[in-house]
Specification:
By secondary structure, the chain is mainly β. The protein is built from seven helices and 42 strands.
C-alpha cells in the first residue's frame, strides 16, 4: 500500500512526564444501554513492505540518497537472507551485514503530521537513514521499534529509506547462543505512521501508549485502570482532555470516563490514569469464550475553547483473572484449567523467519486442531499477529525474551537484555492471552554471579512493569532442580528430556516431578519442554530409544515417547502446564541428525506444515473435542515383515478394524490407544480399514501397506 494512504484504527502503537490520576465515576452498564460507539480514526498507517532493493554485503555509502543500488536484488519485506543456508547443516550460514533501500513518495496530505517509521522485527542490529539523515540504531532482533522521521521525510516528494542490518554474533546482545538459526534481515513488516502533533506517545518502548490494568475481575464486575501516555510535539502549550471508552463487540458502551482539562506544555508529555468499572462483564474465558471488548482512548485538544479529537488509540480488552496454585495448578476466572500445549518457533521451509500473516494463521489453525490451550512463545518476542490470534482464539501464552544459554558479564549486555524485557512487556501488556513473562531459558552458568544478578534484575522488572502477571524461567533438564537461576521467578518451568537425552520414557518423568513436589511443595512448577526427534520417512515397530544425535529417528519412537509422557503429566494436577517441544520442526543449522541436516526434528508437524506426525494425532485424541480416528504408521507403506501391529489413536469408546476385508475384531480402550497385535500381512498390497462411532456419527480411516 505504498501510495495513497489507508486509514484504520490503531491496534498497536506507546512515557511522559506529568502524572495525573483520575478515577472514573462508577456507573452501571445500564447507564450506557442505549449508547453505541465507533472509535474515530485520525491516524494514518501505511505498509512499506514492497519495492525494496537488497544486497547481502556491506556497501559503503549506501545511506546516501544518490547511491546506485540498481544492481541489487529486488525484494519485499518480510525478508531474510538465511531462508536456505540457515537450514542446510554445517552451522556455516551467513552472519554479517546486509543492506536494504527503497524509494517512497510520502503523500502530500501528510504534511504537518508526525511521521514514524515502524519496524516489526529486524535481526539483529538495524541502523536507519532517511534521505541521508541518520535516525538511529536498534539492537535486538525480535521487538518492534520506531523512529521519528518527521524532520527527514519530505511529504509530496521522493524519499530514500536505507537500512543497514547485521546478524553477526555480538556477545553484548542476547541471545549469544541457542539451538536455532539466527536469521538475518528485515523479516517482519515495515510501515509508516502519521499522527497529530498532540498524540498518544509512539516511543514508549514502541508500546501502544495506553495500558489497561485489570483488577477485581469477577462475573459481577471488573475494574480497569487506563493509563494514557500522551505527548505534545507542537510548539505551543495545549489544553487536553482524555476520554476513555470501553465497548463490547457490538459497539455498545459498557464504561466511559473523561478527564478534566490538563495543560501540557510544548515538547513534553503527560501520563493520565483513569479508572472505570464494568458491571456484569462478559469475561475472556480461554477457548470456551475468548470474548474481547474494545478500549479506546481519545485525545481531545480543547485549547482556547475548541474541541478537536487529535488522536485515538484502540486496544482490545479481554477481562479475566489468573492464578497458579502449587497443588492444584492454573486457574482462569476462578476455575481450574490444566494448561497443555506446545512450544512455537517463527520459522518454516522456504521462508525461514520471513513468514506472512497467512503463515501465522495456518500455524494457529494447526495448534487449535491438536486441541492445545496454551503456547510457549519460544524463545523470543513473536510478531503481533501471533499474540492477536491468541487473544481471538482463547489460547494462553508464555511470552519470553531471548536470554538463552549464555550471559555476558557486561553493562551493555545487561542494559540491552533489560530493554528487551521492557519492550516485550510494554508492547504486549494489553494482550489477555499472555499470562507468563519468561525471563530466560537454560542458562549454562546457572549458579554464576553475573547470570543470577541479571536474572534477579529481570524478575524485578516484571514485578514493577506488570505485577498482575507471573514471572517464569525454564531450567535446563540436566541442571539441579534448585539451580539458583530457577529461583528468581514466581513460577518455574523445567525442560526435561527423559527418554531422549537421558533416562527412560517410562515413569522417570513422573517420579522426578513427584520428588520435586514433595521436597518443594510451595514451588509452582510446569513442564516447559519435553520431546524427541522424528523423521516421518523413517519407521520401525516399537523401536528402542534412538541416538539423539544419530541419523535414525523413527516416527514410531516419538509416538511411544509422547504416549508415556502425556500419561505421566496428565496424572499430576500440580504441574500447572506442559509444553511439547515443539509444534513444528525448525531450522537449527548446527544440527545433523535424523537424516535431515540443519533441522531440529522434534516437531509434531514437519517444517513445511505438510505432515502431521503420528504423535500429533495422539495429542489430538487426548486434547481436542473434535472426533479423532487415526491409523498410525501410515507412512510406513513398504513392509518387509509379515507380522506387525495395528495401532489407532481415537477418542471413541471402541474401534473396529478390518484387514483386506476380513474383520480383526472390535477393541475397547481406556487410554485412547487401540491395538491389534500379531497382525499378519499377505504379500503385495494390504488394506486396513478402521471405523468408530463418535458422538453418534460414524468415522472411517484407512491405509495401504505393501509387503515385499
Amino acid at each position: 500500500m505504498a501510495g495513497f494512504p489507508t486509514r484504520r484504527q490503531l491496534l498497536s502503537g506507546t512515557t511522559g512526564g506529568v502524572l495525573v490520576s483520575l478515577a472514573g465515576i462508577p456507573q452501571t452498564n445500564a447507564a450506557f444501554a442505549a449508547t453505541t460507539y465507533t472509535a474515530p480514526d485520525p491516524r494514518v498507517w501505511i505498509h512499506l513492505n514492497n519495492g525494496w532493493r537488497f544486497i547481502r554485503a556491506d556497501a559503503t555509502g549506501a545511506e546516501a540518497i544518490g547511491f546506485n543500488d540498481s544492481e541489487w536484488t529486488s525484494v519485499n519485506t518480510p525478508h531474510t537472507w538465511n531462508a536456505v543456508d540457515g537450514a542446510d547443516g554445517g552451522n556455516n550460514y551467513y552472519r554479517g551485514v546486509g543492506w536494504y533501500r527503497r524509494h517512497y513518495a510520502v503523500p502530500s496530505e501528510l504534511a504537518g503530521k508526525r511521521l514514524y517509521l515502524q519496524f516489526a522485527g529486524v535481526n539483529q542490529v538495524a541502523d536507519v537513514w532517511v534521505n541521508g539523515t541518520y535516525l538511529g540504531q536498534h539492537e535486538g532482533g525480535y521487538s518492534r521499534f520506531r523512529f521519528d522521521a518527521t524532520a527527514a521525510l519530505v511529504p509530496g516528494g521522493d524519499n530514500v529509506i536505507a537500512v543497514k542490518v547485521t546478524n553477526a554474533r555480538d556477545t553484548d546482545i542476547a541471545p549469544v547462543g541457542a539451538d536455532y538459526t539466527f536469521q538475518g534481515g528485515i523479516y517482519r513488516n515495515v510501515s509508516l505512521w502519521a499522527v497529530d502533533d498532540l498524540h498518544v506517545r509512539m516511543t514508549d518502548y514502541a508500546g501502544p501508549g495506553i495500558y489497561l490494568r485489570q483488577s477485581n475481575v469477577t462475573a459481577a464486575s471488573a475494574t480497569v485502570t487506563v493509563t494514557t501516555k500522551l505527548w505534545n510535539d507542537s510548539s505551543t502549550t495545549r489544553s487536553v482532555v482524555v476520554r476513555s471508552v470501553v465497548a463490547d463487540k457490538s459497539g455498545a458502551v459498557v464504561a466511559e470516563t473523561s478527564s478534566t482539562a490538563q495543560t501540557v506544555p510544548a515538547a513534553t508529555g503527560a501520563e493520565i490514569r483513569q479508572t472505570v468499572r464494568i458491571d456484569n462483564p462478559r469475561l475472556w474465558n480461554g477457548l470456551a469464550d475468548p470474548y474481547l471488548h474494545n478500549a479506546s482512548v481519545e485525545i481531545h485538544d480543547v485549547t482556547a475553547g475548541a474541541d478537536r479529537i487529535a488522536d485515538v488509540v484502540t486496544e482490545r480488552l479481554g477481562l479475566r483473572s489468573i492464578a497458579v496454585d502449587a497443588d492444584t495448578g492454573f486457574h482462569l476466572n476462578g476455575s481450574h484449567l490444566g494448561l497443555h500445549g506446545v512450544n512455537l518457533h517463527q520459522e518454516r521451509t522456504g521462508k525461514g523467519w520471513a513468514i506472512s500473516d497467512a503463515d501465522h494463521t495456518q500455524d494457529f489453525d494447526l495448534i487449535q486442531e491438536i486441541g492445545a490451550n496454551a503456547i510457549r512463545m519460544a524463545h523470543y518476542q513473536h510478531d503481533q499477529k501471533d499474540y492477536n490470534l491468541a487473544d481471538e482464539r482463547g489460547l494462553l501464552l508464555w511470552a519470553e525474551i531471548p536470554l538463552v544459554d549464555i550471559v555476558t558479564d557486561s553493562a551493555a549486555f545487561t542494559t540491552g537484555t533489560q530493554t528487551q524485557l521492557r519492550e516485550l512487556i510494554r508492547q504486549n501488556y494489553n494482550h489477555p492471552s499472555i499470562v507468563f513473562w519468561g525471563i530466560g531459558n537454560e542458562q549454562l552458568d546457572y549458579d554464576g554471579t553475573a547470570t543470577n544478578k541479571l536474572l534477579a534484575s529481570l524478575a524485578g522488572i516484571v514485578e514493577s512493569e506488570d505485577p498482575d502477571r507471573l514471572s517464569t524461567y525454564a531450567v535446563r533438564g540436566e541442571d539441579p532442580d534448585n539451580a539458583q537461576a530457577g529461583l528468581h521467578t514466581q513460577t518455574t518451568g523445567f525442560n526435561k528430556y527423559y527418554g531422549w537425552y537421558y533416562g527412560s520414557k517410562d515413569g522417570e518423568l513422573g517420579a522426578w516431578a513427584d520428588n520435586l513436589h514433595a521436597n518443594s511443595p510451595s514451588r509452582r512448577i510446569c513442564m516447559s519442554e519435553y520431546g524427541v526427534g522424528a523423521n516421518p520417512a523413517q519407521h520401525a515397530l516399537n523401536p528402542p530409544k534412538p541416538a539423539p544425535g544419530g541419523s535414525w529417528h523413527p516416527e514410531e519412537y516419538q509416538a511411544l515417547f509422547h504416549e508415556a509422557a502425556w500419561k505421566q503429566l496428565a496424572a499430576r494436577p500440580y504441574i500447572w502446564g506442559s509444553f511439547v517441544w515443539a509444534m513444528f520442526d525448525f531450522a537449527s543449522d548446527g544440527r545433523n541428525e535424523g537424516g535431515r541436516p540443519g533441522i531440529n526434528d522434534k516437531g509434531l508437524v514437519t517444517r513445511d506444515r505438510q505432515i502431521r506426525k503420528d504423535a500429533f494425532h495422539w495429542y489430538k485424541a487426548n486434547w481436542a473435542s473434535t472426533p479423532t480416528l487415526y491409523l498410525t504408521s501410515r507412512r510406513w507403506t513398504q513392509r518387509t515383515d509379515a507380522t506387525t501391529e495395528l495401532k489407532v489413536y481415537s477418542n471413541a469408546d471402541e474401534v473396529t478394524a478390518t484387514l483386506n476385508g476380513t474383520s480383526l475384531s472390535t477393541v475397547s480402550s481406556g487410554d485412547r490407544i487401540f491395538r491389534w497385535a500379531g497382525v499378519t500381512l499377505k504379500p503385495g498390497r494390504n488394506t486396513v480399514v478402521v471405523t468408530a462411532t463418535i458422538n453418534g456419527s460414524t468415522y472411517t480411516d484407512s491405509v495401504d501397506w505393501t509387503l515385499a
